[in-house]
Amino acid sequence: MSLKVGVLTGGGDCPGLNPAIRGVVYRGLDHGFEFVGLEEGWRGLVEGKTLPLGLNEVQHIINQGGTILGTSRTNPFKKEGYVERCLATWKDLGLDALVAMGGEDTLGVATRFYTEHGQHVVGVPKTMDNDLSATDFTFGFDTAVTLAMEAAERLVDTGRSHRRIMILEVMGRHAGWVALYTGIASGADWTLLPENPDIDVAAMSDHLKKVHARNKVALVIASEGIKVPGVEEGKEELDDFGHMILRNRGVGEQLAQLLEKETGIEARFAVIGHMQRGGPPTLFDRMLGTRVGYKAADLVAEGDWGKMSALRGNDVIGVPLEEATGTLKIVTPEWTRFLETFSK
Ligand code: F6P
């Protein structure tokens, strides 16, 4: 089947993107497709910036973090004339289909190109935040949480030597999955999630004092999306998709100050930040990236437009893009109750 297929990666990068690009290209070659890479997400389509994409470009990238196509948070539906420019590039390049890899924002744009403009689009879910609906997991999450878990363990070592409270601030935006998994896997004593905005400072402080008294390093994992009580919020900075930019809010530091004051125990914090998004993907993310990429090529071959390859149980299936982008997948009360069991 001779189809020309464009591939782009949008939004924040994460480990697993390169295996996914490799997966779609390798499987696409089985179908006889020709590929073209769009540079830096939707910006590549707006500006007509392309990259060669074939076996030579993808044969060595299974273990590489980042994305060989580059990425951006460009939203063509936000700027006058950008949608028309995308459609013109689509035509000029002679694309029969486009595979868009991304999270809620990137796939939201893909959905609109499909529903409002009838374009032949297939999605691949990606986000280290794991907050995309309609798929059990997204690649990037496993690597990001593994790195945060290792960072937390290092903090515990130094915390033990100094008898300090240690705080790790992790990414995850407005969903607490990264903090939740990091907290459970690193044996944290208190984990703060954006889904639970009413922080009980007295209960948290009492608990940390109790833990400290029995000679355990009191470890706190805080999601970047929380609000620390008593702290005045600065002006909100929004991205192209209208989402609050969370960097530099300093919730880790604010917590350290608060807890030192409330408990009388010395506290230190660390922010893992973009280190969580780099480095080689874990085995899980290599496998998931490869599988969802492979499935995306099959969806193109079947002409099953407006779908995304999703992990359901242990199967990778096609699901409507609209299901994935309608609502954010956030941490449920059941998970919060599970977490509470480990705050003793
Ligand atoms: O959505 C992924 C993510 O890593 C979030 O967890 C984080 O808030 C954001 O991206 C950071 O974005 P940027 O790379 O633009 O600073």
Please give a structural write-up:
The protein has two domains: 4-139 and 281-325, Rossmann fold; 142-278, Phosphofructokinase domain (Rossmann fold). The protein contains twelve helices and eleven strands. The chain has helices spanning 17-31, 42-47, 55-58, 82-93, 104-117, 141-162, 177-185, 201-213, 251-263, 283-302, 321-325, 333-341, and strands spanning 4-9, 34-38, 50-52, 97-102, 121-125, 165-170, 190-192, 219-223, 267-271, 307-312, 315-320. Helix 5 (104-117) links the parallel strand 4 and strand 5. Bound molecules: 6-O-phosphono-beta-D-fructofuranose. The site of 6-O-phosphono-beta-D-fructofuranose (F6P) has 11 residues, from loops. 6-O-phosphono-beta-D-fructofuranose (F6P) binds at residues 12, 127-129, 171-173, 224, 246-247, 277.
Write the layout of secondary structure elements.
Layout: E1 4-9, H1 17-31, E2 34-38, H2 42-47, E3 50-52, H3 55-58, H4 82-93, E4 97-102, H5 104-117, E5 121-125, H6 141-162, E6 165-170, H7 177-185, E7 190-192, H8 201-213, E8 219-223, H9 251-263, E9 267-271, H10 283-302, E10 307-312, E11 315-320, H11 321-325, H12 333-341
Parallel strand pairs: 1-2, 1-4, 4-5, 5-10, 6-8, 6-9, 7-8
Antiparallel strand pairs: 2-3, 10-11
